[in-house]
Amino acid sequence: MKKLTLLLSLILLSFTLSANDATSWIRINQAGYLPNDIKVAVYISLNEKSSPDFVLFDALTDREVFKGIGKISKASEWGMKSAFRFDFSNLKSEGGYYIISNGVKSPNFKIASDSYEGLADFMLVYMRQQRCGDNPYTGVLCHQHDGFIVDHPTRSGEKIDVRGGWHDATDYLQYQTTSATTVYHMMFAWEQQKDKSVFKDLYDSRGRAGSNGVPDILDEIRWGLDWLMKMNPEDKVMFNQIADDRDHAGFRLPQNDLVDYGWGPGTGRPVYFVTGKPQGLGKHINRTTGVASTAGKFSSSFAMGAQVFKDIDPEFASKMREKSIQAFDFAVEFPGNTQTACLKSPYFYEEDTYVDDIELAAATMYNYNKDPEWRKKADYWGELEPVTPWMELGRGRHYQFYPFLNLGHYYLANSSDKATRDKYLGFMRDGLEHLKKRAGEDPFVFGIPFLWCSSNLVSAAITHAHLYRKASGDNSYYEMECALRDWLFGCNPWGTSMIVGFPEGGDYPDQPHSSYTRHNGDLTYGGLIDGPIERNLFLTRAGNALTKPDSYAIFNNGKAVYHDDIGDYSSNEPTMDGTAGLCYYFAAMEQEGKELSTVKDNWGAVVRLNPASKTIYLIFSADSMFQGGDKVLKTLKRNKIKGSFFLTGNFLRLKEQKGMIERIIKEGHYTGAHSDRHILYAPWDKRDKSLATTDSLATDIKRNYDELAKFGIGLKDAPWYLPPYEWYNKESVNVASRLGLKTMNFTPGTATPADYTTPDMKNYRSSSELIDKLFAFEKKEGLNGAIILIHPGVQDSRTDRLYDKLEDIIKRLKRLGYNFERF
Questions:
Q1: What ranges make up the beta strands (E) of 561-611?
Q2: Which of 6, 152, 285, 359 has its CA 20 to 30 A from that of 341?
Q3: Per-residue buried b or exposed e for 590-601, using 16+ beta carbons within 10 Å of the residue's own CB
């Protein structure tokens, strides 16, 4: 009767979930929550009488783990009838979970210390894709004839080499304004990150795959600084942009850019000289009043660059240091803003501020040399703009108050002078207070104006909040910081991430406004899209640009609209400065989440555990064959070693193996999951693709754990998971993590996994060959924290079985000083 009641309850729950799915939604952070985060999911509904009660379940066992009552929020902000904030911050246990409320089930999500691991580096994928001149994504040179000076009193028409830098977005315009900000953000991320291992070395200086001994973020920084040097070739000679809005000529790959600016199709673009006066080559003129916004950005970027490269390239650093002082003096001599120029239409970056740029230049110099005179200079300019205007006013025109984040305030808030420190901590707090008050009762705690590029403002706000928390120790705005971060990963009305391609297996933009998407069917991986925009701004800018019916129409009845549509350049176009702006925050999140010392491969699986220790982890996997099991267990027992066994559901269901499985468990070895049906998750030749849906992957893993449960093994006993065939991708790793599992795999280069090969295979390797390769690898790379896989079952045609040599391997490794542990 109990089973029947449970079955009826599950059927009723399934019906209820299905019935309410079209009118109510639970939004979560798809990237995951750190254990100590303020963790909130948001419920929105078109039903007026929704209940605030919610229940949180373990995603693997479907066991109830937390109950709560949501905080009522203002649903009408988003065209809804009810909205609640479901706070489950008290749940700190790492694992995979889902929430049910009012018959609606949320997507699975994780609480994990590694939720943001590798994300700072992932943003650099987009930066490499945006490179101009030598593009590593296309592998083809572009814009090799740049460019011709315009608007100079004596040098107009002269050719100058300004190749390099980054394309601003989908168009191929290049702006000093956004590029200098981008470079600074990446240098700031590098400078602030104490554990530099967060930034990997997987690409060379040209952005091609392959290590060059330099972290990829430094390669990208150098790429930008080299271009900035070209744009400021001598004292008081500065250039602010390459090309103009004639560039807006439709989707095309960069090497096929044949726009004619007067020198022939594709044979050179205009390079705008910084005049300090209103500019425009046609009837449309900008509102430039001086040079300080541009000169200040040159100065701060060169000042930071000089510090970053002082030991790497002293000569380069010395040149930048000199240029930084020159640019600062130029900025102070001719205060005012330099805006970008247009020709065809009255569209340009309307930057009206400049005091923050001078402040940042002076504050950067003060940060490095601690000279009180530079502190006084920074303070003079900093006092003129206590709060970044968009934060205070809640409005602004396109890039009117730029940069969106004042990092100069942060440096002064860390001053050794207490009065200065207190003053700038106060300024930073005031900015956050404006955002918090504007958020009011918004269910997403969103007080940011929906200007064009609202995602860039979110990036600025969470960085500002984190830096304030770091400098002051005040957690008053921590909930807002977490909420705005969660917004970027799907805790928003649309339930989508604002970063293209992340997280794998999640909901993210798959139709970004990009030539790469249109022509190559590819995505702008790592790119932060513009984000939701106020409805009237969308109608003004891109109202007729949609290419398909609006799949988000039901969510676009609130205070902002968003479309995952290649035509909507106002909300779905990635930008480089917003993307680079997140490098600091995501690196900081990764550092905050680090609890275990591990080494992961490019697909997210742990391949070394505790790499500082001379410890080895012996693992054994099985699906159907296990003829060497008895010998393996006896060898481990004789050598007083505990191993780790990963078993499929297929194996666990074999009646003839029941006694063997019970023996493994009784003798104290780790017993974990290896998938249920031993299906292949990804093609051998296209690993980034998936052969199964996220739901089917999750079901396969859960069934494996159902079988383990019959032997008394639960998630707490077996959190480590080995994918079938030891072959997986980021999507399958993420699916496992949302179930609360940590994916692991053998250490690449150890060779032993090839012990399954048979003499009829081209890749056959004898046991002696495999042992030789293992110890050659040990000599070269070491085996600290290594995971060594040996198959306890192989085809009958392989008579030379590596498990027969297990004792010899163990003794030899012990002589080298290694010890052994289980997972």
A1: 574-575, 598-600, 606-609
A2: 359
A3: bbbbeeeebbbb
β-bridge pairing 53-58 and 95-101: antiparallel
The 3-state DSSP class for residue 71 equals strand
Work out whether strand 670-673 and strand 528-529 pair parallel, antiparallel, or are unpaired.
unpaired
Residue 764: CB partners within 8 Å, gap ≥ 6? Answer: 757, 758
Q: Cα–Cα distance between 373 and 379 in angstroms, integer?
A: 10
CB atoms within 10 A of CB 674: 26
* pLDDT of residue 110 exceeding 60: yes
**Mean pLDDT calculated for residue range 717-736:** 94
**Interacting residues of 78 by C-beta distance below 8 A, sequence separation 6+:** 44, 443, 493, 555, 557, 558, 559
Tell me what pLDDT residue 21 has: 54
pLDDT at 3: 32
Helical (H) or strand (E) element with 821: strand 819-821
Under a CB-based contact definition with an 8 Å cutoff, are residues 723 and 701 in contact? Answer: no
Other beta carbons within 10 angstroms of residue 318's beta carbon come to 13
Residue 93 confidence class, pLDDT cut points 50, 70, 90:
confident
Q: What letter would DSSP give residue 583? A: H
Residue type, 98: Y
Residue 14: predicted pLDDT: 44
Contacts of 323 (CB under 8 A, 6+ apart): 229, 232, 298, 299, 302
**What is the three-state SS of 705-720?**
HHHHHCCCCCCCCCCE
Q: What is the pLDDT of residue 1?
A: 29
Please compute Rg for the chain using Cα positions: 29
Distances (CA, A) of 120 to 487, 585, 681: 17, 8, 26
- CA proximity to 185, closest of 123, 119, 274: 123
Three-state DSSP string of 177-242: HHHHHHHHHHHHHHHHCCCHHHCCCCECCCCCECCCCCCHHHHHHHHHHHHHHHHCCECCECEEEE
Query: Among 392, 354, 359, which residue's Cα sits nearest to residue 378?
Result: 359
| Cα→Cα distances 581→206, 527, 703, 714, Å | 22, 11, 42, 41
- Phi-psi bin for 526: left (phi > 0), alpha (psi -120 to 50), beta? left
378-394 residue pLDDT tens: 999 999 999 999 999 99
Task: Kindly report, residue by residue over 265-315, the tens digit of the pLDDT.
Answer: 999 999 999 999 999 999 999 999 999 999 999 999 999 999 999 999 999
**What's the token pair of residue 366?**
């003060």
Q: Which two tokens stand for residue 599?
A: 């080494």
Q: Where is 409: in which H helix or E strand?
A: helix 407-413
Pairing of strands 644-647, 615-622: parallel
Give yes or no for residue 595 having a pLDDT over 70.
Answer: no
- The amino acid that residue 542 corresponds to is A
* Tokens of residue 512, six digits: 């970004």
Rounded to whole angstroms, what are the CA distances from 664 to 183, 630, 643, 656, 798? 55, 10, 9, 14, 25
Residues 6 or more apart whose Cβ sits within 8 Å of residue 505 = 690, 694, 730, 731, 732, 734, 735
Task: Spell out the residues 6+ positions from residue 717 whose beta carbon is closer than 8 angstroms to its own.
Answer: 671
What tokens were used for 757?
A: 């090969």
Sole residue written with tokens 């003004």: 540
pLDDT of residue 54: 98
Q: How far is CA 208 from CA 131, 216, 419, in A?
A: 12, 10, 48
How many whole angstroms separate alpha carbon 462 and alpha carbon 203? 29
CA torsion sign for 666, 669, 670, 676 is negative
- Helix, strand or coil, per DSSP, at residue 541: helix
**Would you give the DSSP letter of residue 754?**
G
Please report the pLDDT score of residue 4 as a whole number: 32
